[in-house]
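Q: Hand in one record:
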Amino acid sequence: MAKVFLICGKICSGKSTYAKQLQAADQSVILSVDEIMLAVFGLYAGEKHDEYAANVRHYLFQKSLEVIQAGVDVILDWGFWTKAGRNEAKAFYRSRNIECELHYLDLADEVWQARINQRNQSVIAGETTAYIVDSNLAAKFEARFEPPAQDEIDVMVLY
């Protein structure tokens, strides 16, 4: 049976790049909240961003079941910033007897800042569609991020 990969890491930690590498090796499907949010709402969903993102996650949980039933692995490129979010995803799949792995991307602060700078430059240059991460947004996500405990991690990726 197909399985699910949960990609966990801070904003701009390389999750999407890592997800694409997994996809290439595994012929799987990537489901990304950011991809849908940007396609539907553009860069600015405003005050309703968190509500819309929660709705997208709910939709993608259901859609992932269709993909898995077709025998294809699913990569959830969502960040899984909180323990509660990771537990919710694991419970959702395990209650359906679907194997679920957490891949955690850990990186040093200086590498993280360099990636934020690189991404922002790419967005400004029009080379990619992503959110600009200013110092306020970086601080907000860093404050929200709960690194997974060792017993939560199936695969650790260090940068």
Summary: The helical segments are 15-26, 33-41, 49-69, 83-94, 109-124, 135-144. The chain has six helices and five strands. Strands lie at 4-8, 29-32, 74-79, 100-106, 155-158.
